[in-house]
Structure formats: structure tokens, C-alpha cells
Amino acid sequence: MDASASTVTPESSDGPDPKAEANTSLATPPTVAIVGRPNVGKSTLFNRLVGGRRAIVDSQPGVTRDVHVAQAEWAGRWFYVVDTGGIVEDAEGELEEAIRRQALAAVESADLLIFMVDGREGPHPLDQHIAELLRRQRATVLLVVNKVDNLPKATEHLEFYSLGMGDPFPLSAASGKGSGDLLDRVIELLPADRGGDAADAGLRLAVIGRPNVGKSSYINKVLGSDRLVVSGEAGTTRDAIDTPFEQDGRTIVFVDTAGLRRRSRVETGIEYYAIVRALRAIDRADVCLLIVDADEGISNQDFRIARLAWDRGCGLVMAVNKWDLIEKDTHTVTRMERELRQRVPFLQAVPIVFISALTGQRVGRALDLAWQVGEERAKRIPTSEVNRALAALTTAVQPPQRRGKPLRFYYAAQVSSRPPVFALWTNYPKEVPKNYLRYLVNGFRKTWGFTGSPIRLRLRARRKEQA
Hints:
The chain has about 475 residues and is of the alpha/beta class. It folds into three domains: about 30-190, P-loop containing nucleotide triphosphate hydrolases (Rossmann fold, 3-Layer(aba) Sandwich), CATH 3.40.50; about 205-375, P-loop containing nucleotide triphosphate hydrolases (Rossmann fold); about 385-415 and about 420-465, K homology (KH) domain (GMP Synthetase, Chain A, domain 3), CATH 3.30.300. Helices cover about 30% and strands about 20% of the residues. The chain is built from eleven helices and 17 strands. The chain has helices at about 40-50, 95-110, 125-135, 180-190, 215-225, 270-285, 300-310, 330-345, 365-375, 385-395, 435-450, and strands spanning about 30-35, 70-75, 75-85, 110-120, 140-145, 170, 205-210, 240-245, 250-255, 285-295, 315-320, 350-355, 400, 405, 410-415, 420-425, 455-460. The longest helix has 17 residues, at about 95-110. The radius of gyration is 26 Å and the shape is elongated.
């Protein structure tokens, strides 16, 4: 009995445990971008507007490094909210300049700009610089003075008239004071919704892996733009960012995640929330593209990340990046594939592709494999076929006995997809050995494929008194 392709640790609970799918729309409601210098509270306001901790908040300046987008609703009106990295006048270094470019790109595409300043510190020279930049934009600008707690009696916001950006709007994003009035004003200033029916979200692809293995570089190569910040500093991508992409009639929504690290190496609140973001991204994804670094070598942490996605029901493709840096011969690919699958048995079912995000080598192939895995994960097998396969498997290898009585499988059906879940009715569900369940999983996979997708089995008693 070959257990090398086992995809799950089967559970004996009744019923499927399908993943919740994100309610995603590709319609284009208006966009509100929050901009300002670092550490004035942009992410706090973002989280307040979208109703949850969607962006990372920390007292360290410059935490928000990528443009982060979520939908918000107020008074029956839906709109996008964009949280940007802080704009700095004289960017020092590659990363700061990249953050500045990203924030300015978000400004250019927004319908309404919330220009946030710090009411406790008063007008800052950088505020004046940003005001000059925003005056050149087509979008309406709403000046919001944050950290004003003594509402409605406060007057400190009035000194921001000096920026020449209209009436300053006082707010405490942390406590929520003034947020309802702000949302009312936002709705007044928004343009009408742009046309377009809601479209199918397509394939949700989470790009995962350790820090600095090339996740953002991969997405940038596919998109053909600098949509995500890319830097040589490990841990650049700290938020999960959804980016729709269409090609050849296919819609793929990228979910680029923070690099996952072992919990023992998580030292700051920033890293903790990055991990939370990554786990939620995996939970929202149909397929995970695991990027590993061929130059540094594939580590046990890479395999732990793969197992995390697999156990949570995601489809999986492994992309070995930086392949252009490896000295190789005609047998290198075959040898490495064999070694990887030997180290982790469930990788027998996972496609492996060797890429270079820098040169573009096989970048499109990885995308094609992810799409194929998504289709495999969504397959439904007719009940008649499931029962024929179950009968053939149990005839070829008889189920073991339980205290001198034979285990019997009566019938089976696929009860869910994404990932595929099969319910099997048996006389002693709690007594079926795991190795026999692995045999059944292997047999189902050999019959129907489900390449790159875990297969889950749910055992049910034929009669309650036998459970």
C-alpha cells in the first residue's frame, strides 16, 4: 500500500469543512485614498473605515509599506479605501523612494483624497510639501486633522487653515470621535458609482513563502509593473494585498502575503500582525503559490509553510525561484524534484516549477499550473463513480478487522469541493486506521487526479449506535 501520496490526515467528523470563499467583486465603486506624512494615523483611520484590523498599526513610523485596499460601506454606499505609505520629501534609500512612488500612484488613481495631518504636532513643513503635491491632482481633497480628542470644543485644528486646503475636519481616529461625521462628508463628496456588473472573482492566488524569496518580484513580473514595493531588505511586504489580473480570458486575484517566519523569531507587534495577515490570506485563497529560494536552499521552514497551506485546504504549487543562479546539468531538475518529494510525501501530488522572477523564466508556467490546480480543486465526481472506485479499492485491499469483525464501507459521495471532500459510510468510523484512509486517498487521486489539491475524507456511521 503506497502512502507516499497521502494528502491529509483524515478526520472522522461528520460533514464537510469547506473553506469560506471571499465575497469579491470586480465592479469599480469610487476610491478614497488616505495620504499624509508618516505616523499621522492613516492606517488607524483605514481600519476604522473598513471596520476591522485590515492594515497593520504600530507606533513605529513607516510601517505601511505597500498600498492596501479594502471595501467600506456607509449609508448604503460602497467605496474602496486605500491606505498608503507615508510620503517623505527627500526619500533616503531605495525603500523610502519606492514607498513614495506607491503613495503618489495611489493618489493619482483616487476619486477622493483624505489628506491626514497630526493635530497634536501642528502644521509640519512636510505637510505643506504634500499640500503642494495634492493641489496638482484632479481629485477632491478633504483635509482631516487627526488626534483631536476634545471634540466638539477643540480648536487646534483651525491652525491648519494655513495649508490652504479648505476647511480642516477634526477627528480622533483612535477613539472614533468624529468618524461618523467624516463618513457623511465622504459620501457627499464621492462621485457616482462607475458602471459595470459584479464579475466572478476568478482564481484567488496567495503568493507565500519566507521573507525575501521573491514573492513581490514574481507578481511584479507577471503584472509588468511596479505595483508592489520590491527591495533587497527582508520582510518588505508586511500587508496582504489583493491585485486582480486578467490574461487570456482568465481572472486571477493575487494575494501577496507577508513572509512567514517561525514563531520563535517573531519579536515585534509588526511581525505578529504580518503573520496574521498571511494566515488570513491563505484562508481566503483557492491556490497558494509557494516561492522558495533555490540559491539559499530549501529549508524546513519552506516545508512548514507548504504544510500550513495544505492543511488549510488550499491548492498548492511550488515555485523554485532564482533558478538562473544555479549551476545545473540536464538532470538537475529531475534530481531536485525527486529529493523534494522524498522529503515531504504530500509533495507527490504538488506541481513543482523552476522559475526566475528576475528574468521571467517560466513565470507564466507557474501561473498556468496554479490555474490548473484551481480547476482540479473545484472538480465534482458523480456519486456513481465514487462508489465504483470505492468498491474497486476495498476489493483490491480488504479493510482490516476490528476486534475480529470486518470493517465495511457501504457507500460514499463527494459532499464538497474547494477542497474536495468525500463522505464515506462505514460500520466503525472510529476504528478505520489512518494508513487505510491514506490508501483510499491515494486511490481516489490516481482515479481522478485532483493534482495539487488536498483530499479530505469524512467518515460517517451507517447507524448511530455503531458510531
